Amino acid sequence: MSTRLLALLTFLLALGACPLLLGIVNRTKALAAGRNGPPLLQKYYDLRKLLGKGVVYSHTATWLVRACPVVVLAGSLAAAAMTPFGRGGAVFSFQGDFLVWAGAFTMARLFMVLAALDVGSSFEGMGGSREVWYAALAEPALFLSMAALAAIARDYSLTGFFLSLTPEVTSRHLMALLFAASALFFVSLAENSRIPVDDPTTHLELTMIHEVMILDHSGPDLALIEYASMLKIWVMGALVVGAAVPVNIGSWWLDGACFLVGMGVFAVLLGAVESGMARLRLTRVPQFLVGALVLAAMSVVMMARNFA
């Protein structure tokens, strides 16, 4: 199978399977709590229900609120198209694409915050302020992790980061990879508004971050935003799995199977973290993100010592 076709198939798989990833997370949390929990396909049902409803707009809202769901989804799709899922590579790959990848998510976040401010609610403005503050703390750890992966791969594209991780390269830089993967996992918790940074199921006014910004969206608009969030979790999970489980067997279907198992383990780990930890106080979240930055910095330092 050609590399281009395999990249396209893995991209389509990500589009179809990302709601299932959250289904695994929710089932893990339910089992940890001794409940039956929702079915694995519940997120698909929720999206279908939202798509069948009408849309209500605030009388103070402008075009920003209407454009927000489309821009957020476009940002997630663009980032997914530049992310290698398994060993198939990405649909679009070029040197320095990780900067455009991060910019796509930044654009989505910008429109999300602007739409929250546009409705004139101080409550949503509070959530937008927290979102921007935590993103500013998480992005240094993200870029340092990318720098470590670039140093390991001697390449500057996301596809090059992971396709170059042969068994020999992995064994030589194992600790740096583990530090980078740990930092990426912490960043994924913050970027996707998961516990311990945020609780995606809460509706307590003083603790909401991501959920408060989408309170004025409904129907198909809310479905687009929710789906974009699911796709973002899949994309971030693919980076964590690519760094933590750099399997390069040589057979596309065996490598693909290992990647899917890794994504399942990533979902179970998310569920375990959310079941075993409470949400941090808002004043403690910066300390959590500084911890991710330290892990990423240690990965960079280890690579710098190898080159010295």
Please provide a written account of the structure.
The chain has 308 residues and is an all-alpha fold. It is built from twelve helices and no strands. Helix 8 (174-191) runs antiparallel to helix 10. The longest helix has 32 residues, at 122-153. It starts with a helix and ends with a helix. The model has no long low-confidence stretch (mean pLDDT 90).
Number of helices: 12
Radius of gyration: 19 Å
Instruction: Tell me about the largest β-sheet.
Output: none
Average of per-residue pLDDT values: 90
Query: Which percent range describes the beta-strand content?
Result: under 5%
Order of secondary-structure elements: HHHHHHHHHHHH
Spatial shape? globular
The tally of beta strands, per DSSP, is 0
Q: Return residue spans where pLDDT drops below 50 for at least 5 consecutive residues.
A: none
* Alpha-beta content class: mainly alpha
Q: What distance lies between the first and last C-alpha atoms, to the nearest angstrom?
A: 40 Å
Helicity level, as a percent range?
over 70%
Helices and strands in order, then pairings?
Layout: H1 3-32, H2 42-51, H3 63-81, H4 97-118, H5 122-153, H6 158-163, H7 167-172, H8 174-191, H9 210-213, H10 219-244, H11 252-276, H12 285-307
Q: Features of this protein?
A:
0% strand, 308 residues, single chain
Short note summarizing the structure:
Helix content is 72%, strand content 0%. It is mainly α. α4 runs antiparallel to α5.
